[in-house]
Specification:
about 325 residues; alpha+beta; five-stranded antiparallel β-sheet; 6 helices; DUF1996 domain-containing protein; DUF1996
Length: about 325
């Protein structure tokens, strides 16, 4: 999976009901000022402890315990059904992968009925990241591999429930040190950086984005779309988030090299296409077929095998 990756290294019932309402019925917020306050749900600076946990997870080897989905870019739009539900055009431009129907009004029910461009087709999950631009022109990824990995107490890993959603990364970062979740590299080269690299001719730009592996076991969402998830402390999930889940990792390859690179983003309360590389972030809304996801968690993650897109071991 690349040298760069190896180097970079009780909730009360009302909380459950709130999460389910958020999950099934996006609220319309017409007339809301889409200011930095709104976007701050995607713009938190991690604490030093959280940063250390993120870096440790990035450096953790994947000891033969993963499965994957191969997806493509489906469409792009100024929508974000997690941060701005029901607000078409309320967000900066995102690149959507997987479920082909994802938009600002998406619900679990609508996504279940939608299509997918992922292999396997049992993965109807919605994935999205900010759109990449080169010299002001949007660039669709050449390849998107979604890895599900057993890096934290894999034998006790559980499958995500349908409707679980969370975000990672700091869209409002003002410096590379404020966003340790994402890292850029060039295909075939060892160097990595939280900001864009100028990849030489003959290479391609790629990005790794790593999600947390511990869930509170109750909520499908939280007000900032992050607090129901956590990174492990060492190899153990904290008592507040005791449920181990596979580590979700995006590996996105773009057919570009050189300079002139920017991201869609939010700067000073406005949606732009000139955000720096260290603002990369991503969203996940789980719509896997439950039986197929459970099979992969059992036969790949918990059993300790590397599996292909069909969920069968390819390496022992």
């Amino acid at each position: 999976m690349g040298t760069a990756k190896l180097l970079a290294a009780g909730v009360v019932l009302i909380g459950v009901v709130t999460a389910l309402v958020i999950h099934d019925q996006p609220t319309s917020q017409a007339g809301v000022d889409h200011s930095a306050m709104d976007h701050s749900q995607h713009g938190q600076v991690p604490s030093k402890a959280e940063e250390a946990a993120m870096m440790a997870a990035q450096a953790a080897p994947v000891r033969g315990s993963e499965f994957r989905a191969e997806c493509r870019s489906s469409h792009r739009a100024g929508d974000d059904p997690i941060v701005f539900p029901g607000q078409s055009g309320g967000s900066h431009i995102h690149e959507f992968f997987g479920n082909t129907t994802t938009n600002a009004n998406s619900t679990l029910q609508s996504l279940r009925l939608g299509g997918t461009n992922c292999d396997p087709v049992s993965d109807k999950s919605a994935y999205w990241t900010p759109t990449l631009y080169k010299n002001g022109v949007p660039v669709a990824p050449e390849r998107v591999t979604i890895y599900y990995q057993g890096i934290t107490d894999r034998t006790n890993a559980r499958a995500y429930p349908q409707g679980l959603r969370y975000v990672i990364g700091n869209a409002l970062a003002t410096s590379p040190d404020q966003n340790p979740a994402a890292r850029w590299s060039c295909v075939g080269q060892s160097q990595s950086s939280r900001d864009f690299l100028v990849c030489p001719p003959g290479t391609k730009l790629e990005n790794y984005l790593d999600f947390p592996t511990c869930w509170d076991g109750t909520r499908l969402d939280s007000p900032n779309h992050k607090d129901h998830m956590a990174f492990p402390v060492g190899t153990t999930c904290p008592s507040t988030h005791p449920v181990v889940v596979p580590r979700l990792e995006f590996l996105i390859t773009y057919p570009v090299n050189g300079g002139g690179l920017t991201l869609a983003g939010t700067r000073n309360g406005s949606n732009v296409t000139t955000a720096p590389g260290y603002t990369f972030h991503g969203d996940f809304l789980n719509v896997w077929d439950p039986a197929e996801l459970q099979r992969r968690v059992d036969n790949c993650i918990r059993a300790g095998y590397v599996c292909g897109t069909d969920g069968n071991p390819i390496q022992q």
